[in-house]
Specification:
Blueprint (H helix, E strand, L loop, with lengths): L7 H29 L5 H8 L3 H7 L3 H26 L3 H15 L16 H24 L8 H11 L9 H17 L13 H11 L1
Helix pairs in contact: 1-2, 4-5, 4-6, 5-6, 5-7, 5-8, 6-7
InterPro entries: Homeodomain-like_sf, HTH-type_TetR-like_transc_reg, HTH_TetR, Tet_transcr_reg_TetR-rel_C_sf, TetR_SbtR-like_C
Keywords: DNA-binding, Transcription, Transcription regulation
Protein name: HTH tetR-type domain-containing protein
């Protein structure tokens, strides 16, 4: 006696559609929140994503769930960039420059604490930030060993630079253009052989985590 076959292809199609809708919502939400603020009506986001309100709320029951998903998505994007840089063999200031430029290219899609999002202090979020920090420190350590990177620059300097250059300028020139210019200035300074100490004390990853915990 044979059992009934389960409709696996149909379930896979439903799952695939759900993933597509989820990404459409997150992409639209990141763009809308950057333009209109974090408190934009959720129905407006659903409309911009081209999905029904019911579909939206099935994936994201409230604004908090949406913001959490956006932050985790942003960490995944940055880790993906770092993985690609590591695979390419780049290191030192070259790796840092690629990371900064690729981060800038993501634009509004990065919804992160240093860009105005409420900071997550979950184990997963802390682990993701630790992973990003460790990769950047690895690039910098190789540059220090080769004598091509300032000895007192740390990963937090790079992370803060990415956050600051990624902020839109409401009444200034085109954001991406001036952002790339300032990233080039930062990397030029990073490569400089001039070892005059930077103003301190330096900010570390632990300092950021402490601030995030206070804001939570």
């Amino acid at each position: 006696m044979t059992g009934e076959s389960s409709p696996q292809p149909r379930r896979r199609a439903v799952r695939r559609d759900a993933l597509v809708n989820r990404e459409k919502i997150l992409c639209a939400a990141a763009d809308a929140m950057a333009r209109h603020g974090l408190n934009i009506p959720l129905a407006d986001i659903a409309r911009a994503a081209g999905v029904g309100v019911g579909t939206f709320y099935r994936g994201f029951p409230d604004r908090t769930a949406l913001l959490h998903a956006l932050e985790h998505r942003s960490y995944d994007m940055l880790i993906d960039i770092l993985d690609q840089i590591e695979e390419s063999g780049q290191t030192g200031a070259d790796a840092v420059e690629t990371y900064l430029l690729e981060s800038l290219n993501l634009g509004h899609q990065l919804v992160l604490p240093l860009r105005g999002a409420p900071p997550l202090t979950s184990e997963a979020a802390i682990a993701a930030r630790r992973r990003i920090n460790a990769s950047l420190e690895q690039f910098l350590a190789a540059g220090r060993a080769a004598g091509t990177v300032h000895t007192d620059v740390n990963a937090t300097d790079v992370i803060v630079c990415a956050a600051m250059t990624g902020q839109p300028l409401p009444h200034g020139p085109a954001g991406p253009t001036i952002g790339r210019r300032h990233l080039s200035l930062f990397v030029r300074g990073l490569r400089s052989p001039d070892e005059a100490p930077l103003p301190g004390p330096p900010v570390t990853r632990d300092d950021l985590e402490t601030q995030f915990a206070k804001a939570d």
